[in-house]
Amino acid sequence: MCRDCNKFFLEFPTHIEHRFCLRHLNNNFKKTFGGGVMFKDLMMGAAKATYEQLWKHKMKQIKDINKAAYHWLYNLERNIWCKYVFSHLMKACLWGFY
Asked: Looking at beta carbons, which pairs linking 49-54 to residues 24 or more positions away fall under 8 Å?
């Protein structure tokens, strides 16, 4: 480990918002609940929803298919994976798709 790493993290700005990478979130989701295009599309749709009603609609579709998967996603902090909750101060989309 580099000698200056601790210094870097101590000086790291605290106002930076943390986000989950959807690719990694989807991989963890697949490991737990199995894969499939339908689950991926629903989870990505919920994550990319720009307003709460659409997010709720996608989450209901997930719940209808697999309640455990719904609860797994529902219990995650929404401000780190749901676009509709993200701050409007973000300057660019880091996902590569908008």
From this structure: 49/82, 49/83, 49/84, 50/83, 50/84, 51/84, 52/84, 54/84
The overall longest dimension of the chain from CA atoms, in Å, is: 51
Give the predicted TM-score (pTM) of the model. 0.73
Closest CA to 16 of 88, 83, 90: 90
Tokens 């797994």: give the residue: 72
Element (H, E) at 40: helix 37-48
Q: Are 41 and 34 spatial neighbours (Cβ–Cβ below 8 Å)?
A: no
Length of the chain: 98
The string of pLDDT tens digits covering residues 24-39 is 988 998 999 887 899 8
Rounded to an integer, what distance in angstroms lies between the CA atom of residue 53 and that of residue 89?
A: 22
